[in-house]
Amino acid sequence: MRKLFLLTLISLSFMMGCTRLPEPAFVSPPAADFAASPEQGLAPLAVTFTDLSTGDATRWHWDFGDEQFSSMSQPSHTYTAAGDYTVSLAVMGPGGSDVETKIDYIKVSLNIINWEEAGSYIGQRKVVEGIIVGTHYAADTKSKPTFLDFHKPYEGYFKCVIWGYDRDKFIREFPPNPETYFLNKRVHATGLIQEYPKGSGVPEIILREPSQIKVVGE
């Protein structure tokens, strides 16, 4: 009986030793893909991105090409400057990761109008082009505005205005001061075209940041 018991134990041990453990299931990495709508338009351009990746993805990293990023699966992004933007999507999951890059995928252009047309676009954000033919810093008034004029005399015509509390930013960017820097230069001024005074039909753009205006010709 003892011999039979030993043989049974040996047999069971042999069978257990030969039993193969189940191999872990293979998980494929996700394959990145995406689409955008719209793919082109005028600044500021709001774009909705759709993740078209296949496979199991649990994390997303979008690079919109303008130093802005998102970790959402279906993000929206607004491009504020003109240019051709390369967009990348990296997806990550249990099986690994993948990246899809589309070169110059989003194309953003400027809607440029001549300063003489500005009165027709009150209430809209536009890029206005023209030569600044007169400037004035009203240091003796309460709000200390700086006027950049596109017509002489300036009364009743389109102009750009920098309020006194923003003036230091423009002095640092355009030394020695904006009225000297921009005089007799062709510029692009970007912003909301407003009517001042109300009901007059006289258009102006308030410049709050130096990035709103740039020289495009002498």
Q: Could you tell me the CATH topology label of the largest domain.
A: OB fold (Dihydrolipoamide Acetyltransferase, E2P)
What is the distance, rounded to the nearest whole angstrom, between the alpha carbons of the first and last residues?
Answer: 111 Å
Q: Which architecture of the largest domain would the CATH scheme give at its second level? A: Beta Barrel
CATH uppermost class of the largest domain:
Mainly Beta
Taking all residues together, what is the mean pLDDT?
A: 89
Uncertain spans, ≥5 residues at pLDDT below 50? 2-10
Number of domains: 2
Q: How does the overall form come out from the CA principal axes?
A: elongated
Helix content: 10-25%
Run of helices and strands: HEEEEEEEEEEEEEHHEEE
Per CATH, the superfamily of the largest domain is Nucleic acid-binding proteins
Nearest-angstrom radius of gyration?
A: 32 Å
User: Hey, roughly how much beta strand do the residues contain?
Assistant: 35-45%
Per DSSP, the total helix count is 3
Number of strands: 16
Specify the structural class.
Answer: mainly beta
Q: What profile does the largest beta sheet have? A: 8 strands, mixed
